[in-house]
Amino acid sequence: MSQPTQNIRFLAPVESEPRKRMYCRFKKLGITYIDYKDGAFLLRFINEQGKILPRRLNGNSLKYQKKVSQAIKRARHLAILPYVADLLK
User: Fold this and answer.
1) 3 state SS for 7-66
2) Quick count: other Cβ atoms within 10 Å of Cβ 48?
3) Is residue 83 in some structural domain?
4) Could you tell me which residues are beta bridge partners of residue 46?
5) Is the residue at 15 inside a domain?
6) Which pTM value belongs to this model?
7) Over the stretch 50-66, which tens digit does the pLDDT of each residue have?
């Protein structure tokens, strides 16, 4: 049995806004070393619960995302950042 093909038509055309181009802020600014002792800077890369944000959300390249996660883990070990938090920001 073959069904008739139907063209789906919308009342208004479906528009999607163009997404902003993500970039690695470390490459753009030329930062080579991520200091694990700077807790205020590392807070940008964790969410309210204290979890590390993934690359797709913060736009870091793979190289710098690994450095950021390592710096956050070192800061947690030295009690500069909490492991778990409720409404950190």
Assistant:
1) CCCCCCCCCCCCCCCCCCHHHHHCCCCCCCCCHHHHHHHECCCCCECCHHHHCCCHHHHH
2) 10
3) no
4) 52
5) no
6) 0.76
7) 999 999 999 999 999 99
| Chain CA centroid to CA 53, Å | 5
In a domain, 20, yes or no: no
Q: Which amino acid is at 24?
A: C
Q: Would you say residue 53 lies in a domain? A: yes
How many structural domains compose the chain?
Answer: 1
Residue numbers of the domain that contains 39:
25-77
CATH no. for residue 44?
A: 4.10.640.10
For residues 72 and 53, what is the distance between their CA atoms, to the nearest angstrom?
A: 11
Question: Which residues contact residue 25 at a Cβ distance below 8 angstroms, ignoring those fewer than 6 apart?
Answer: 31, 59, 60
Would you tell me how many other CB atoms lie within 10 Å of the CB of residue 43?
A: 15
